[in-house]
Amino acid sequence: MIIEKAVQVLEAKTGEPAEVGKHWFNRFMERHPKLATYRAGPLNRIRANAANPVVLRDYADTVERLFAEHKPPPRNILGTDELGDRNNVTVIETICADGTVLRPIVIFKGQYLMLGWGEDNPDDAKIAVSAKGYTDNELGVESIKFIDEQTKDREGVRFLFVDGHGSHCTLEFLDYVAEHNIIVISYPPHLTQWLQGLDVACFGPLKIFWSQEKAKWEYKMRQRVSKDTFLRVYSYARERAFTQPTICSAFRTTGIDPLRRDLLTLENASPAKVKKINGRFPLALPTPAKAIIQAQRQVREAPLQDTGMSRPAGSPSAAAPVIEPPASPLANRTPTAQLPLLRQVLVGTSAEFLITDSPLKSTSRLPPLVLQSSPKSLEPNWSILQNPANAALMSRSRLEQEVEELRAELRCAWETVKRERAIYEGANAQLVLWDTHLEELSEQLAAKETKEANPLKNLMASKTARCMTDSNFRDIKRNLKKQKEDAAKRKTEAEAERVRAAEREKWQEAEKVEHGSKQKSAIAKWEQEAKEAKRLKKKQPKRPAVTKLYPRAPTPDHLKPRKQREAIAANRREQEEQEEIDIGEAGEAGSDTENESSESE
C-alpha cells in the first residue's frame, strides 16, 4: 500500500512511469519510527454477527435515556478496560471524557506480592496479584473501590462504561456501585472493538509505545524488563499514549461525548467490505452431488438414455426419441426423505459429515452451489414454427429439404432437453445435501437454545447493552445467586444422601450376617439337644422360633432415608412442643391452686 502511494506521488510529480528502489520501504520505515506494520486478519465471525441494527439502537437508546435524565459533565463519564501483557501482567486503565486518566491498577501473576514489584512506581499505581495474572471477581470489586476513591469528590452521578466480563456482574460489584451513586453501562457483547474508547483510540498507541520503550530500556540497561522494572518502563509508554487529545478522541469517536447517535450505526460497526473477488466458472458439480445423481440413476426403472446427438447441419434423418421422464422410486419425496436411501453413496466424499453422529463444526461445510444454464448455441430455430411454408406449393426436393431442416432442429431441441434434465438433476442432488445440512444446523440450534434457556446462564448471555445498576437487574442477579446456592445445597445433600445410602447398605449387610449367625447358632444348639434327647430316649425339645428370639435390629435414625428422617424430626418437634404446652398448663394449674389455698386461708 505504501509503495503504491509512493509510486503515485512520483508519477504525479514527473508525469512519467516511475518505481521505487528495492530497499526504499525499509529506509522509509527507519525514517518514521512512529509507523508500524501489521498483518491483516479476518474478522472474527462472532464479532461480525454481533453488529446488527437492533443491538446498536438499543445501546444508543440506553445511553441517550440515562444521559438525558442525569446530564453528566464530561469529567463524570468514565470508561475502563484491561490490557494484558505476555509476562502475565494485566493493567486496568480508566479514562474520563474530559481528557484525564486515573491511576492504573496493575495485576501481577503470582501467589504473593513481592516488595520489589512496587518500589519503583512513578504513576502511583495500585498493585495486586492473582494466580492467573488477570482480574477476577474479587479484584473487580477492588477496582471499582479504587475508581470510586479517585472520583468520589465529583458532584453528580458518575457513569462507568465497562465490558461484559463476569467480574463486573457480581452482586458485590453491583451493590457497591448502587450505594455510591455510580451508573454502570455494559457494552453489547463482541462489539468492544467499535464501541470501547480504550480499544479504539488508546490501546493501539499504547502497545506501540510500550514496544518502543521496552526495546529502548533493554538496549540501554542490557537486561530484560522484569516485574521489578515493569512499572517504570510502562509509565514512559503510558505518558506518551494517554494524552488529552487521544483520550477525548476515544469518547468522541465512539459517540459518547458528545453524544452522537449517527456514530452508533451499523455502517460504522460493520466489517470491511471485500474490494476484489477472484471469480471462477462453476463448470463441474461437487463430488457429493455426483454421487447422489449416480445413486438416483441406479434406482430408476428406466434410466435416461444418451443418444449422443448433436446439431450437425444437413445430417441424415433419425427417429425422434421419446422424452417422457422415466418413473423413479425417489419421485414425490422431500430431499431429507431421499437421503436415507442415498446415505451409503456419501461415504468418502466431502459431505460425509452429514451421515455421521458427530456434531457439526464451523469447518463442516458443503461445496459451493453450482448454478448452470443451458448453452444458447443449442437453442432450436423457433422461427420455423412461426412462419410455416405452404407444402402444396412446394416441389418434392423442397419438401425433402424442409423435412431435413425440421429434423435437425428437432435433434437440437432434444439435446437442449437432455442438457436441461442434467441441470435439474444436479440441482435436485444439491438440494438434498443443503436441505439435510440445514436440518442438522436447525437441530443443533434448537439444542443450543434449549440449553441457554437456563436463567442462570441467560442473564449474562444478553446480546444487548445493559444498565447494570438498575434495581431490577440487581434483583434478578440476587435471585439467581440464591438459586445457584440452593442448587449447590441440593447437590451437597444428594451427595450426602448417596453416602448415607452406601453406609446403610453396608450396615444392613453386617446386620444380616450377625443376625444369621445368631439364628444358625441357635438352630445348631437345638439340633445338639435333640440328638442328646433321642439318645437318652427323652422328649424332643421344641424347635426355637429364631425369628422371634433374634429379630433384626431397626435401622439407626441417621442412616434412614431423607423423608423418614424428616418425619422423625417433625414428630420430635411436635412432642417437644406438646411437652412445653403440658409444662405450661401444669404451671398455670399449680399457680391457680396456690391462689385458691391462699384465698381460703
UniProtKB/TrEMBL annotation:
Keywords: Coiled coil, DNA-binding. Residues 1-38 form the HTH CENPB-type domain. GO terms for molecular function: DNA binding. One of its GO terms (cellular component) is nucleus. It comes from the Eukaryota. Signal peptide: none annotated. This is HTH CENPB-type domain-containing protein.
